[in-house]
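Narrative of accomplishments. A recurring question from our advisory board has been how the design workflow behaves on a single, concrete structure rather than in aggregate. To address it, we present the structure tokens for one chain from the evaluation set, followed by the sequence designed for it. No filtering or post-editing was applied between the two.
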């Protein structure tokens, strides 16, 4: 019930502050600070077919995009019949994202109800993976209402913004599973209403990319590298099979 009430309050607040948001967008435009593709920002992202399962991965900027490089490579290798859709929020993130092996790349739409709903209708994800500290209320709530599994990869809590995130902490309870960077992050996420039984400590996945690159040069074994990754990669696949049956 609380989530429904918050959903409507959030939409009302966005309507009230829409003129301010519009003014901010105009100022950025004249200062030549790019939002990326306006078409994609308003939800008109590239459309994907429903024929193949689609995993939607969102990484906001360069660091987060680089962090999911190994995950995307491994996921596509293990599940070649699935498609991986990668969204990002910055120009730098887009430039890096285009170099990865994701099947489709676009900017994340603005977190308005209509734009986010349009994105879901065009991408048709069977699961949604967010990276590190991403909390977009409409994105999370719509995924929850549409019964699309939610995962937080490389989850962490920045101490500087923890007091602000606490007000939206209840949204962490919507995640199907959270893979935290550290035990400290796992405890902080649990304190913000994430369900403890749905939290695992995976470590910083950025180190996986370093190991993978080193392995490609040395030819050494990657058993240690892949040991933790399948637990995340296989979750969307099991859920896809369950939704089809």
């Amino acid at each position: 019930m609380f989530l429904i009430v918050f959903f409507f309050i959030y939409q009302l607040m966005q309507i009230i502050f829409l003129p301010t948001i519009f003014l901010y967008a105009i100022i950025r435009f004249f200062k030549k600070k790019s939002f990326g593709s306006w078409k994609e920002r308003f939800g008109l992202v590239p459309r994907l077919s429903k024929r193949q399962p689609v995993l939607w991965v969102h990484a906001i900027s360069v660091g987060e995009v680089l962090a999911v490089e190994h995950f995307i490579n491994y996921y596509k290798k293990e599940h070649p019949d699935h498609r991986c859709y990668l969204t990002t929020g910055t120009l730098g993130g887009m430039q890096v994202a285009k170099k990865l092996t994701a099947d489709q790349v676009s900017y994340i739409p603005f977190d308005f109800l209509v734009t986010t709903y349009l994105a879901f209708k065009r991408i048709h994800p069977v699961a949604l993976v967010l990276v590190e500290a991403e909390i977009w209320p409409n994105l999370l709530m719509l995924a929850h209402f549409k019964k699309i599994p939610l995962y937080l990869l490389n989850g962490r809590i920045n101490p500087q913004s923890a007091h602000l995130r606490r007000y939206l902490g209840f949204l962490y309870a919507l995640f199907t599973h959270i893979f935290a960077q550290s035990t400290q992050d796992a405890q902080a996420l649990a304190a913000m209403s994430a369900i403890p039984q749905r939290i695992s400590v995976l470590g910083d996945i950025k180190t996986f990319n370093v190991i993978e690159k080193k392995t490609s040069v040395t030819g050494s074994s990657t058993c240690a590298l892949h040991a933790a990754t399948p637990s995340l990669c296989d979750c969307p696949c099991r859920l896809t099979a369950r939704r089809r049956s």
